[in-house]
Design goal:
- With 238 residues, the protein is α/β, with parallel strands linked by helices.
- It folds into two domains: 119 residues, Response regulator (Rossmann fold), CATH 3.40.50.2300; 109 residues, LytTr DNA-binding domain (OB fold (Dihydrolipoamide Acetyltransferase, E2P), Beta Barrel).
- It is 33% helix and 32% strand.
- It contains seven helices and 17 strands.
- Strand 6, helix 4 and strand 7 form a beta-alpha-beta unit.
């Protein structure tokens, strides 16, 4: 298993080592003092299984590093480490495994690995649709956005692919799970990819800025807030 800890403070890295060895003395972590060094190492095979990432580092933002890491290695589990819970909801939007408040404890490390195991064992929902003469099957959690396009639907995936699906928008929408939110006529977003929601604009991780139906904006925001808090409550300790 490939484990990484990224923190600009060597003393905090040693504290992490103590917590990790309290769970399993045979485990070791690759240590990085900057997000840039972490991302460079992440490009090497095999991918990291889990990264414990400090949010506050000089000249760097751990949230931005996490987004770049997601692009390099979507399968890597991310556990944020910080001094406060200020970014807990944003961490959720990045599908973080855990959110640890310093000092890191063995209990916190154990919980992060438990969630990693649970995530990997969980059955991921799939969806199939026609794209031209071909038929594609993707994991539902890979879909970030659906946009109606006349008689077709443009489906955006987390890896940057964009597929034109020749299925009526409403018919395709009925196949989706509760992670998706209808924010405007012909626009549905996967709430796990939302990074910011304003009164009239919804921003996704890839930078897409999507219009929200003004008359329904209060209900849309309430639905998103309920989704976030329900998920946070199910993730004990986050």
């Amino acid at each position: 298993m490939r484990i990484a800890v990224c923190d600009d403070d060597p003393a905090e890295q040693e504290q992490f080592d103590t917590a990790l060895h309290g769970w399993d003395p045979t485990r070791s972590a690759e240590k990085f003092l900057s997000g840039a060094a972490l991302l460079e190492a992440a490009r090497q095979a095999p991918p990291f299984d889990i990264v414990f990432l400090d949010i506050y580092m000089p000249g760097e933002n751990g949230m931005d590093i996490a987004r770049s890491l997601r692009e390099i290695s979507p399968e890597t589990g991310i556990a944020f480490v910080t001094t406060s819970r200020e970014h807990a909801v944003e961490a959720f939007s990045l599908q973080a495994l855990h959110y640890l408040v310093k000092p890191v404890t063995t209990e916190g490390v154990v919980e992060a690995f438990r969630r990693l195991t649970e995530l990997r064992s969980r059955q991921r929902e799939r969806i199939s649709f026609a794209v031209g003469p071909d038929r594609y099957t993707v994991f539902m959690d890979q879909i970030s956005l659906l946009e109606n396009d006349n008689h077709a639907v443009n489906v955006s995936l987390s890896d940057g692919r964009r597929l034109k699906v020749w299925t009526p928008f409403n018919e395709l929408a009925q196949q989706l799970n509760g992670s998706f939110l209808h924010i405007n006529r012909g626009i549905m977003v996967n709430m796990d990819y939302i990074v910011h929601m304003e009164t009239d604009i919804c921003t996704l991780q890839d930078g897409s800025r999507l219009p929200i139906a003004i008359r329904q904006s209060a209900a849309i925001r309430a639905a998103y807030d309920n989704y976030v808090f329900d998920r946070l409550n199910r993730r004990r300790g986050l």
